[in-house]
Design a protein that fits this description.
The protein has helices at about 15-25, 120-135, 155-160, 180-185, 200-210, 260-265, 270-275, 290-295, 305-335; strands at about 30-40, 40-45, 55, 65-70, 75-80, 85-90, 100-105, 110-115, 140-145, 165-170, 190-195, 235-240, 245. By secondary structure, the chain is α/β, with parallel strands linked by helices. The strands form 3 sheets. It has a 6-stranded mixed beta sheet with strand order 10-9-8-11-13-12, sandwiched between helices. Strands 3-2-1-4-5 form a 5-stranded antiparallel beta sheet, with no helix packed on it. The two termini are about 30 Å apart.
Length: about 350
């Protein structure tokens, strides 16, 4: 395929920053957005309504949602544009525990999906919020299966306790409750990503958002309400009224990668209290005038929330040490790492 004088379709989410980077590369290069990854291949959308082209990812760190440049023959990814956001977790497979797994790139909103039919999972949500805030996108909590419960108020309140500054929406992919509100987050060609465990109704919600039965669905087990993976690969999907949705496979383990200010933002209530402690290096144990312990004593802060924050901080420090060790090992072996988007 020969070069054409063309940049990415604005409806793909193309921005002024991308335009500037594209022009610096030379305006004859072919640019598009990754809609799906399959065993070393990227499906790249060049324009809304067109079939994607398939190109190889040789030597490129590519994720669904990335904007990329293909080479002159449209055979391989030649350049990955700087990411404005990326939802990244620690790789979950053995042998790559010190490696990152980017679930979605260039997203504006991360929807954290929980089912109203299961007990509230506050500790999981806290982890998800750390990753979401670190991604650079805005987190939104979505409680699905509203059609199967009589009163969602207690579940909403329970998750609001650990997400006080985050929108919490109630929805049903079956009845359509809350679907239009969720679509509103994709206004102005924004991109939303859905993240949740198997069985929380994510595929049913995707079908409702897209407006047709795009994803297969499966029943959950009666005993533990767990479901099978019905989404097998992340995919970028166009929404009927504009904007984009990244559907992801069910994520069972929510492993941290590295935090900028994710923990601080996810636990803003705890950090606010810490600022009021008498001593700057307060351990929140038995020090005098500890605002955190005072809040726990008077019932305004759940001690489990402090414990959760401290575990996540310790986990992050351990992970950073693993990353440093892994990088040193690669350097000693002279291994060249794929060029990453920034």
């Amino acid at each position: 395929m020969k070069h054409i004088d063309w940049s990415a379709d604005a409806n793909l989410g193309w921005s002024d920053a991308l335009e500037t980077e594209w022009r610096a590369l030379g305006t004859s290069v072919l640019a598009g957005r990754v809609s799906r990854l399959d065993r070393g291949w990227s499906s790249v959308l060049l324009a809304v309504g067109e079939e994607p082209i398939r190109v190889r990812n040789i030597g490129a760190d590519v994720a669904v949602g990335d904007f990329v440049v293909a080479d002159a023959d449209a055979e391989r990814v030649q350049h990955v544009f700087a990411r404005r956001s990326a939802f990244v977790r620690r790789a979950s497979f053995e042998g790559s525990r010190a490696e990152a797994h980017t679930i979605a790139a260039n997203i504006d909103v991360v929807m954290l999906i929980h089912a109203l039919t299961s007990p509230p999972k506050q500790r999981r949500l806290e982890r998800e919020l750390v990753l979401a805030w670190d991604s650079g996108a805005v987190p939104v909590v979505v409680l699905t299966k509203d059609d199967l419960v009589d009163d969602p108020a207690s579940m909403v309140a329970s998750l609001h306790e650990v997400a006080p500054a985050v929108d919490v929406c109630v929805a049903s992919g079956i009845t359509g409750t809350g679907v239009e509100r969720l679509r509103g987050y994709a206004a102005d060609n924004a991109t939303i990503a859905l993240l949740g465990a198997s069985g929380v109704g994510k595929s049913t919600l995707v079908n409702a958002l897209v407006g047709h039965g795009r994803q297969a669905t499966a029943e959950v087990r009666d005993g533990d309400q767990r479901g099978r993976h019905t989404t097998t690969a992340s995919e970028l999907v166009r929404l009927p009224a504009g904007g984009w949705l990244v559907d992801t496979p069910g994520v069972r383990a929510v492993s941290l990668w590295s935090s900028g200010r994710g923990i601080e933002r996810a636990f803003a209530d705890v950090f606010d209290l810490m600022d009021q402690c008498r001593f700057r290096d307060c351990k929140h144990d038995d020090e005098p005038d500890c605002a955190v312990r005072s809040a726990i004593a008077d019932g305004t802060l759940d001690v489990r929330r402090l414990d959760s924050m401290q575990r996540l901080v310790a986990e992050e420090l351990a992970l950073e040490e693993e990353q440093r060790a892994a990088e040193k090992a690669l350097d000693k072996r002279g291994v060249r790492r794929p060029k990453k988007a920034t």
